[in-house]
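Re: export button greyed out
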Amino acid sequence: EDKVVQSPLSLVVHEGDTVTLNCSYEVTNFRSLLWYKQEKKAPTFLFMLTSSGIEKKSGRLSSILDKKELFSILNITATQTGDSAVYLCAVESSSNYQLIWGAGTKLIIKP
Amino acid sequence: ETGVTQSPTHLIKTRGQQVTLRCSSQSGHNTVSWYQQALGQGPQFIFQYYREEENGRGNFPPRFSGLQFPNYSSELNVNALELDDSALYLCASSLQGRNTEAFFGQGTRLTVV
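Workaround output, generated via the alternate export path:
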C-alpha cells in the first residue's frame, strides 16, 4: 500500500533557528512530491519536486528530493513566528494523479 | 485567497443523518478533488471529479458520494453519518493532471454528535 511518512510529527524551536522536516515515501508510479503549508484550513503550495538532487528554493525555504532513498527534506532557515504551521508532504501518483498525503509536521516557532 | 469557495464553513450533525457539502471551483478549472482531514492527520483522498464524471476514488465507503455540475462546481454527500466522519473536508480545484496548480478551499468543519 502506498504511504507517506513525515517526521517529526511536531517541533518547537525558537525564532532564528533552522529546521529540517522529513518526508519519506513508498508510492508506486511516483510522479512528483509536493510540499504544502497549512496554517488554518486551506493548504498552500510550496514546492514540487520531480528530480533527485535539484534543490528548489524560495526565500528562506528550500527542499530537495532523493528518489533513490525515497525521501525529501524541507529546510527553513532563520525561522520566524509566521512560519508556525503544519507542513504537509504529498506524493503524486502518475497512474491517476492522486495525492497521497503524510500526516504533517506541526511546527511552532517561539519568539 | 483562492477562488475556491466551500459551504458551509461549519456544520454539526447527528449520527445517522445525511449531509451535503458544496464547493465552487476556480474559474477555468475542470477538476475537483475532495479530501477528508481528521484532526492531527493529513488529508485523505475521497474522490475526484473531472468533467462531471468520477475520476478516481480513495478507500471510502459508498455512503460517500459526489456530483460535479456543468459549471464544474461539486457536491460531497455523506449518508448515515458516523462519529468518525467528524473532520475537515477540503476540496481542491485544478486542471486535470495539474496538482501543483490546485487551489484549496477553506474547508468545511463537520462535527457528528
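The radius of gyration of chain B is 13 Å. The button fix ships in the next patch.
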